[in-house]
Amino acid sequence: MDRQTLSALAHADHPIAAPLSEASVAEVLDRALRPDAHVLDLGCGEGAWLLRALEVRPDVTAVGVDLSDKGFGRTRAAAARSGAADRLDLVVADATQYRGDRPADVVLSVGSAHAFGGLLPTLAAARTHLADTGTVVIGDGFWEREPGPDLRAEIEAPDQPYADLAGTIAAVSADGWTPVYGHVSTIEEWDDYEFSWTGSLARWALDHPDDPDAKHALEASAEHRDMWLGYRGVLGFVTLVLRRTG
Questions:
Q1: Which terminus of the chain has fewer Cβ atoms in its 10 Å neighbourhood, N or C?
Q2: For the domain 3-185+237-244, what is the CATH superfamily, name and number?
Q3: Which residue, 39, 81, 86, is CA-closest to 64?
Q4: Domains of the chain: which residue ranges?
Q5: Taking the model in full, what pTM does it have?
């Protein structure tokens, strides 16, 4: 099973591909969006953040960019049902190479920092798309508690280490950004997200025992569950709403 299909199945019950509740997503978007905003999501997945932005603000336009179009059909259909289809464009492309035809008032990149090489490279990419007075919404991991060496090696890419929350915000601030809002995912949000991720994938495998990918999906679910239980309460996730500092 390819990674995009596995991810689409795992997020069937939690389309926001990050440990945030629907209420938290709504609050973050409310802090970030202005009237008539043009929103760009770099690494949009199926476009769940954009769909919620369109539902919250009837004057918003949105573009989502992702390597895979898995879930795009569902998102376009949902936008059509809500009357927002003409305000949404979903593009299959490498978000690190994408160049839009207009500046974005809001650039989203939640849970996609690995694709850009880490938190600060993601902000550098967002800056190239951002209008002068624009806002960035970025979500990434941090260490709630100091991890053991084995867990650190399992979770972190060698060139993308995590800091603690204070270190994360200090790095963002030193890079020329001012947080104007932030949300730290709660343990309840983490549990809901991870149980949904592993459970949706496992349920699909159990419902399709004759599918050649069923065994792999069930193994991937169990492997991810074991990893999550190892980092539960140690790995955190913060979503920051940022403006450029001067």
A1: C
A2: Vaccinia Virus protein VP39 (3.40.50.150)
A3: 39
A4: 3-185+237-244
A5: 0.95
